[in-house]
Design brief:
This protein is an alpha+beta fold. It is built from six helices and 13 strands. The chain has helices at residues 34-44, 60-70, 137-153, 172-180, 184-187, 230-236; strands at 11-12, 18-26, 48-52, 74-78, 86-89, 94-102, 113-121, 124-132, 158-164, 182-183, 206-210, 215-220, 242-248. The chain is globular, with a radius of gyration of 16 Å. The protein starts with 10 loop residues before the first strand and ends with a strand.
């Protein structure tokens, strides 16, 4: 697998802008090696973790809290109350507000939702959304429009979205999001591209997007990143994570 030059560390710039690290990760309800999962998250040193498939059933809050504590994070929002997406953050974040959003239910299909928040890092203020879109093509496309509407409704000067799109970059939903937002991997590729599956990476169905005013410093699967081993990536869950370094202007 590819090795990588480490991404920039989190910091606040003299002009008030903030360099942050953002990790998007489908953790498959923590059904795999949770110790390996925590090690991967901790090694990436994220300021925000955009989780998909967080635990949703018995003692789900305790399970998510244990993962947050083991990986140096705290729970921001989501989980069962957002039908799976969740947000974790480091102590560097100042939280303004959070909201868990349930998307319309299509009979016979899995309920989907969004975990959302508005946070500040110094003078930089941004909206954040974690999503896990439908397996069904038409529903997935409809959800992408609702996602963009929700992102705009956060009312922040800058915003980012991360999630499991269940679609490759040439699909209509992925294309729709990339038309309105920066596809961070396409903007500044770093690491490797494919996120599914850990044992046979062959497709990119997980991504981080950012509004146009955010500078993308690098984005990709953190193979070779210090502290991230291939063994842990294979053991942690059935997706590979996406890590991005972003410079968010001062509000």
């Amino acid at each position: 697998m590819a090795t990588t030059t480490p991404l920039p560390r989190s910091r606040t710039e003299p002009d008030g802008s903030a360099v942050i690290r953002v990790l998007s990760y489908n953790i498959r309800s923590m059904r795999d090696d949770t110790t390996a999962l925590a090690r991967v998250i901790h090694a990436c040193a994220p300021d925000l973790v955009l989780v998909q498939e967080a635990p949703r059933f018995f003692r789900w809050r305790k399970k998510l809290a244990r993962l947050a504590a083991a990986s140096g994070q705290t729970i921001l929002s989501g989980g069962a109350t957002a039908a799976g997406p969740a947000l974790l953050c480091s102590m560097r974040a100042t939280v303004e507000r959070t909201e868990d959003v349930l998307l319309p239910l299509t009979p016979g299909l899995h309920r989907r939702g969004l975990a959302t928040a508005v946070v500040r890092f110094g003078a930089a203020r941004l909206g954040v959304v974690s999503c896990h879109l439908s397996l069904q093509k038409d529903e997935r496309y409809t959800q992408s429009g609702l996602l963009l509407d929700r992102l705009a409704a956060l009312g922040t000067p800058h915003a980012l979205v991360g999630g499991d799109l269940n679609e490759r970059p040439d699909g209509p939903t992925f294309t729709r999001l990339a038309a309105d937002l920066q596809d961070c991997w396409a903007t500044a590729p770093w690491g490797t591209e494919y996120t599914s599956t850990p044992t046979d990476p062959h497709q990119r169905i997980d991504a981080i997007f950012a509004t146009r005013g955010i500078e993308v410093l690098g984005c990709g699967v953190p193979y070779g990143h210090p502290g991230v081993t291939e063994r842990d990536l294979r053991a942690a869950t059935d997706h590979l994570p996406v890590l991005a370094a972003l410079r968010v202007p001062a509000a």
